[in-house]
Amino acid sequence: MRDFSGRVAVVTGGASGVGKCLCADLARNGAHVVIADIDPARLEAVRAEIDKLGKGEVLAIACDVTKEASVRSLADQVFDHFRTVHLLFNNAGVGLGEAQRKIWSLPLSDWRWGIDVNMLGVVHGIAAFVPRMLEAGQEGVVINTGSTNGGLRSLPNTPIYAATKAAITSISEVLHQQLLREGGQLRAAILFPGPHTVNTAIMASGEVRPSDYVEDEAQTKVAYRTMEDLVRTTGLKLKLTEPEEVSAFALAGLRAGRFWLLPDSADNDRLIAARTEQILARQDPPSAW
Q1: Which of 19, 31, 125, 145 is such that its CA lies 20 to 30 A from the CA of 94?
Q2: Is the torsion defined by CA of 60, 219, 199, 252 positive or negative?
Q3: Would you say residue 94 lies in a domain?
Q4: Annotated active-site residue in 79, 111, 161, 224
Q5: Tens digit of pLDDT for each residue in 130-177?
């Protein structure tokens, strides 16, 4: 898809971070943008901000991606208004207060929240939008936001997050293969934000988790408030990628027709090669990547 002008784009998690930057860049490129987010307080402010950037329409729709009915309502509203969708960014995601905790000590509600947002949010988006996008018969792309953490290798300090993002890689590959069999113009892509840790507020999302996913107040305490805190304490490189860089890279990759929206990175290439060699050699995983 080389031209976004006049295209209809839906972005979940669109009121902050990478999602907000995607909405802004799409608007600048002439797209009609639907900002979907669970935070109604931010939605209208972001809509007004994005609306000034382009010539297309900008809609703001409250949506909880953990709820199938909410995502189907989002799809109903978008198709009722625009009659079609060309770009679906299943982007909403959360970080959890799981860092530095043992996998066997994590409460089930932590797992449920991470899975319901990061994984089932994507599943709900696919189920609500893809059949209608296929029926429209127009060129389109479903873009799922993954992560090198889980998607390429799993960091031991974030078991839930890594597990959900590993699932997104698998879901995206299957979606790509099944859409190819449909023989139409709809395809899939997976976005790996990077190449370095992305400077967003996702690590603080535990403070605003719904009460349905809270067993005790300790769960809402976050291990890191900023990405600088994360990289310092986990041994990652003290270098950050800004959300604006991720958005620009994603749109360039879509123009080029790529499935793997994975930034060039010597570190990522090394990890992919090392993990592949380890699997082929039937070796045990290392204690750390």
Answers
A1: 31
A2: negative
A3: yes
A4: 161
A5: 999 999 999 999 999 999 999 998 888 889 999 999 999 999 999 999
The interaxial angle of helices 68-82 and 120-136, nearest 10 deg, is 30
* Domain CATH for 83: 3.40.50.720
CB neighbour list of residue 39: distance below 8 Å, 6 or more residues apart: 15, 16, 208
**168-196 b/e with 16+ CB inside 10 Å = b?**
bbebbeebbeebeeeebbbbbbbbbbbbb
Q: Domain total for the chain?
A: 1
DSSP 8-state code for residue 206 = G
Whether residue 287 lies inside any domain: the answer is: no
User: Is 161 one of the annotated active-site residues of the chain?
Assistant: yes
Instruction: Give which of 179, 182, 196 is closest to 243, Cα–Cα.
Output: 196
Angle between helices 17-28 and 243-255 (to 10 degrees): 50
Q: d(Cα 172, Cα 142) in Å, to the nearest integer?
A: 9
Q: What is the pLDDT of residues 190-245, one digit of tens each?
A: 999 998 888 876 555 555 678 888 877 665 565 555 555 555 555 555 588 999 99
Mean pLDDT of the chain: 90
State the residue range of the domain holding 14.
Answer: 8-280
